[in-house]
Amino acid sequence: MIAAISLMQRRQDVTPTAFRRHWLDVHGPLVCRFIALRHYVQHHVITSPSMNALARDMCIDGFPILWFDHDADRQRAHHSPEMAACNVDSRLFIGAVSRVICEPQIVVPQADDSVRMKLIAVLPGQVADDAALEHYADWTRGLPRLAGLVLYRVLQQGSAPNSTIPHLPVSAAGIAEAAFASLIDLECALAGADTDAAHFVVEEHRLV
To answer: Which CATH number, 3.30.70.100, 2.30.30.60, 3.90.1010.10, 3.90.550.10, labels domain 2-206?
Structure first.
């Protein structure tokens, strides 16, 4: 499998509520039309004391994640008329974006598909660091009430192809997605957490 993850900032003239509504109701259905799309979720960043200073400094409002069987399918989707329509619509609500192409690895399967509260951890670094990602995974496995864990090993990253949206100058050594049954479980698990990763608390919306 291959996963395309975007790190998105909203336009400054768009409120957080309007950003989320447009992303979910207008942009989401456009993405769902992509050929060979296996899995598509939107992770909406929400306010929480568990979002640390590193995450706050990055000012990211959302993480869409698209899974494909292999990179050829991803390339077909990203050079399709459907992607062209998405690029036009993106200008209405996205201020800046960075794209990270990853190989996903399910470490702890998520048994309950209704789980919507997630921790997205972005490991700092200019290039992929699988050792750092494994170290972070070891730490995450010890969190109480962990309901699922996916690691995303970075294959390439940079500006979104064929996009007129400004590039968001951030990079990742790896990305982790940890699931919890509730916001309370997540915030209690992360109380006093001290890691090098940027911790984002997100609400997941599964579209495909």
So the answer is: 3.30.70.100
